[in-house]
Amino acid sequence: MKKLSTFLAVIFMLSISHSIFAQADTVFIASNPLPGTLRDAIIGDTLADGSRTNPDRVYQLERNGVYFLSGMFVAGFDLKIFAEAPDATHRPPIIAPAQAAGIDHDFICQGDVSFRNLYISNISAGGSRNFGGILCFGDNHTYELDSCILEGNQWNGFVIFGPTKKITMTNCVVRNSVNSGSPWNGRGLSTRDQPVEEVVIENNTFYNLNSFVFRGEWNEIKKMTFNHNTMVNTIKWPLQWHYATDATFNYNIFYNTHCFGESASERAGQDKDGQPFGIFNLFELEQHTFIDSLGYVEGERKVTVSNNDYFFSSEITDFWASIDSVEAEPWMNERTQGMFDDDANYTALNEIDTKNMDPEFIEVGNTAAWSTIDSMVLFMRGLRDTNVVKPLYWGFEPDPSNPPFNMEWPLPENLAYTNATLMTAAPGGCPIGDLNWFPAQKEGCMAVATNEPFTSKGLTVEQNMPNPFKGQTTIAYTLADAAKVNVSIIDINGKVITTLVNENQPQGRHTVDWNAGSQATGIYFYQIKTDNALITRKLELIK
Predict the structure, then answer these.
(1) Based on CB atoms within 10 Å of each CB, which residue in 34, 187, 248, 269 is the most buried?
(2) 332 with 281: CB under 8 angstroms?
(3) Mean pLDDT along residues 491-518
(4) Residue 178 burial (10 A CB sphere; 0-12, 13-18, 19+)
(5) How confident is the model at residue 523 (pLDDT cuts 50, 70, 90)?
(6) Please, which residues have CB within 8 angstroms of residue 450's CB and are 6 or more apart in sequence?
(7) Any bridge partners for residue 190, and if so which?
(8) Which residues is 463 bridged to in the sheet?
(9) Which of these, 400, 447, 448, 414, lies nearest to 173 by C-alpha position?
(10) Is the pLDDT at 290 greater than 80, yes or no?
């Protein structure tokens, strides 16, 4: 079996060079079995007056090390912790509660957070589970979690309270987030009822969760990127955020997500119109909050849902069929699908080429000795029928020779897959889902996916969004100085079919929309000219 070490090593090698962790002021903290070592070393790093020795200091942990917490790690300052890249014989450092520590969260953070290459376990040395992993609060902070493993939480792996600048979660694995009593807890990442400027969730794996992969609930999130993620085995629906205004949900795999299903009475209490919740769900914007107070316009929402795959294994469809009151879950319910199909009122809602096929994962946790999916089904039966004895927890059964807080290393699951269609379904003929499972292709595929701006002689041109698009797309460009600008749309034969801009414009960023109207589907180009520069980029119109 191909182990996760290759997967993780690629993550770290591709990301370490541009990281804040490369700066010089780094303090190494050696592994120590004494509980509280990590917390004491970092919190105690102060001057005589109690101020931080260096507010920008970075703390490096030891690979293969274990750092037990004797209580919650409360950081009232910016916190930056990292480790070197793991390999087959060097796992990431484990941060876990000490036996009988009695703490609700591993970390409580009140400043900016940057964590990289850490294994944050919510399972204590004695086998008990914490309520949550990382809890952050405060105003207008930035949170970065990269190449980390979040293990075994009962509430949220990573939860944020308070208005937030940016949340970035990349190249992480969230696994075995299981609450013994409720399908609503055991989540990945949550923001709680406060505005967020931007959220980026990209190239992550979410594996065995009771509840949501992402919970945004009623938040205003000004910009959302949820691309190239692999989600496997969630009891409730994966995305609990329904008021997207500017978002992309592209190239993801949803495998056995929302496995609990719904009865008619459950639907009445979960979806605002009593419809099946499905896997991807949008609500119309709430009038008072989003439209009256924040100024959003329903018909101007920009959401692209492109080249995703969803699939339910036979164990899940058989589970639904065995319970009379439970019905199968759709990809989208009628309201959501209707919004995407309504090109007249929603010119920038785009659903493109959704697939429904088995990825054919190499190792999803069903082995001769253990079936992750069967354990989830038994757990769900116990939630629906009190006469059924359910397991206290479900998920990938740990190696009994390891301490309970320490899963097998390399991690035993392998979510690379063999479905040839999905392996070329992203731009550039790349795989969909978490690209870390395809290390030989990741760097090249990410270069295609990022659509970095083109710059020439004072002109910077961004990739149009959405792209591909149906109906309307937005073109953005930035002028270093005031200039005469011409923006034209050109067909595949080089003919100019429309001119969108032809005027003097001031320095700064500008946007212009192209409504393709009755133009035929296919490849077009947008060309932006100034006196000193000419940049041409490709766009794709679909119907």
Answers:
(1) 187
(2) yes
(3) 92
(4) buried
(5) confident
(6) none
(7) 159, 215
(8) none
(9) 414
(10) yes
The DSSP call for residue 22 is G
Q: Give the residue from 445, 450, 433 showing the smallest Cα distance to 252.
A: 433
Q: What is the pLDDT of residues 372-425, one digit of tens each?
A: 899 999 999 999 998 998 888 898 765 666 776 676 788 888 999 999 999 998
3 has a pLDDT exceeding 50: no
* pLDDT for position 370: 66
Q: Look up tokens 């005031």; give the residue.
A: 482
The residue among 470, 467, 430, 438 whose CA lies nearest residue 451 is 467
Lowest mean pLDDT among 262-276, 293-307, 390-404: 390-404
Look at phi and psi of residue 179 and say left if phi exceeds 0, alpha if psi is from -120 to 50, else beta: beta
Average pLDDT of 49-62? 94
CA dist 241 and 215 (Å) reads 6
| This prediction's pTM | 0.84
Reported as type and span, the H/E element at residue 489 is: strand 483-490
Residues in Cβ contact with 18 at an 8 Å cutoff, skipping those fewer than 6 apart: none
User: Do the strands 508-515 and 472-479 form a parallel or antiparallel pair, or are they unpaired?
Assistant: antiparallel
> For residue range 99-109, what is the model confidence (pLDDT) as tens digits?
755 678 889 99
| Tokens representing residue 159 in the block | 């939860």
Torsion sign over Cα 176, 181, 183, 189: negative
Q: Count how many Cα atoms sit within 13 Å of the Cα of residue 335 in the half-sphere of its side chain.
A: 16
The residue among 34, 54, 56, 33 whose CA lies nearest residue 45 is: 54
Asked whether 130 and 102 are in contact (CB, 8 A), the reply is: no
What are residue 73's phi and psi, to 5 degrees?
A: -85, 100
pLDDT at 14 over 50: no
Contact 311, 238 (CB under 8 A): no
Residue type, 423: M
> With contact defined as beta carbons under 8 Å apart, do 309 and 359 qualify?
yes
Nearest to 135 by CA among 72, 67, 65, 55: 72
Phi, psi of 380 (to 5 degrees): -65, -35
Q: Are 71 and 100 in contact (CB under 8 A)?
A: no
User: Is the separation of the CB atoms in 203 and 171 below 8 Å?
Assistant: yes
* Nearest CA-CA partner of 249 in 325, 304, 313: 304
Tell me the three state secondary structure of residue 339.
helix
Paired tokens of 292? 């009256």
For residue 59, how many other CB atoms are within 10 A of its CB?
18
pLDDT at 452: 62
Q: pLDDT, tens digit, for every residue of 175-194?
A: 999 998 899 999 999 998 78
**What's the token pair of residue 33?**
């079995």
**Are 219 and 195 contacting, i.e. CB atoms less than 8 angstroms apart?**
yes
The kind and range of the H/E element at 79 are strand 79-83
Spatial distance between the Cα atoms of 363 and 398, rounded to a whole number of angstroms: 15
Contact indicator for 126, 99 with CB cutoff of 8 Å: yes
Query: In this structure, what are the phi and psi dihedrals at residue 3, rounded to the nearest 5 degrees?
Result: -90, 170
Question: Of 372, 431, 411, 428, which is closest to residue 252 (Cα–Cα)?
Answer: 431
Q: What's the residue count for the chain?
A: 543
